[in-house]
């Protein structure tokens, strides 16, 4: 079966098996909306973040792009606007969603491409993909280079968010590839970028909105979350979940 054929057959299966139940869920969400998070995830076809997080209809506003990048406020203008800050405004300002998630992953093709041109991010030429990665991934490469020059190559790195500084140790157990280290650094840089917008400043300082870094290891199918208290990514499991919920603000 062709690619489009498989997708259209999926439409028929949806109509036959799931449509009535989903219509009920749509109605319930319209009457009692309670979204939990605005999520920025990579567009990699293996990372179906709503399925991985077991989300229901109405749980999440989702933006997917190459590299789970969130442009910094300094890049915003009439001629250079993108979906990501608009999603933050729609979700956290207009609809008062309390959580922002930035989720990266291992074996990321976008991060592999960024790593491959890490010495060329100032060259303002390229394809749509390489220009996107250069412009909005340059700061991640800069932080990655700081990591390489840190004691033992693990940090700490510092990321600024309103009212505090996040200190981060990356891969202290020395298990990750260089690209995967860049991927984790990138997630934290995008957290800083998401926090750069004035429209979120008061909400972030008051704790009405919390921004959280997630990272998914495709090889093991394990989630990791950055703990502000522990200053590193921790695996999400039964022994860490209470701490991580509290660390994320408890929303």
Automatic annotation (TrEMBL):
Cofactor(s) for this UniProt protein: Zn(2+)
A GO MF term: carbonate dehydratase activity
Cofactor, how bound (note): Binds 1 zinc ion per subunit.
Binding-site residues for Zn(2+), renumbered to this chain: 42, 44, 105, 108
Hydrolase is among the record's keywords: no
Record-listed E.C. numbers: 4.2.1.1
Reaction equations catalysed: hydrogencarbonate + H(+) = CO2 + H2O
Assigned keywords, A-Z: Lyase, Metal-binding, Zinc
SUPFAM superfamilies: beta-carbonic anhydrase, cab (SSF53056)
Pfam family, one: Pro_CA
Functional note: Reversible hydration of carbon dioxide.
Stated family: Belongs to the beta-class carbonic anhydrase family.
UniProt protein name: Carbonic anhydrase
Lineage summary: Eukaryota, Metazoa, Spiralia, Lophotrochozoa, Annelida
């Amino acid at each position: 079966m062709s690619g489009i054929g498989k997708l259209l057959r999926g439409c028929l299966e949806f109509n036959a098996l799931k449509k009535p139940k989903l219509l009920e869920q749509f109605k319930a969400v319209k009457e009692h909306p309670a979204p939990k998070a605005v999520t920025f995830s990579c567009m990699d076809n293996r990372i179906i973040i709503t399925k991985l997080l077991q989300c229901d209809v109405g749980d999440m506003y989702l933006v997917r792009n190459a590299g789970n990048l969130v442009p910094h406020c300094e890049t915003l203008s009439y001629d250079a606007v993108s979906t990501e800050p608009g999603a933050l405004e729609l979700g956290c300002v207009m609809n008062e969603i309390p959580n922002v998630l930035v989720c990266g992953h291992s074996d990321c093709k976008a991060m592999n491409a960024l790593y491959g041109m890490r010495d060329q991010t100032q060259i303002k030429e390229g394809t749509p993909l390489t220009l996107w990665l250069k412009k909005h991934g340059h700061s991640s490469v800069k932080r990655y280079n700081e990591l390489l020059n840190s004691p033992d190559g693990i940090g700490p790195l510092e990321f600024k968010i309103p009212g505090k500084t996040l200190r981060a140790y990356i891969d202290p157990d020395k298990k990750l590839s260089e690209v995967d280290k860049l991927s984790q650094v990138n997630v934290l840089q995008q957290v800083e970028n998401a926090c750069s917008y004035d429209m979120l400043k008061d909400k972030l300082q008051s704790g009405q909105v919390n921004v959280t870094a997630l990272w998914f290891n495709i090889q093991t199918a394990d989630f990791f979350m950055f703990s502000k208290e522990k200053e590193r990514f921790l695996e999400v499991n039964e022994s860490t979940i209470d701490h991580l919920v509290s660390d994320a603000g408890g929303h």
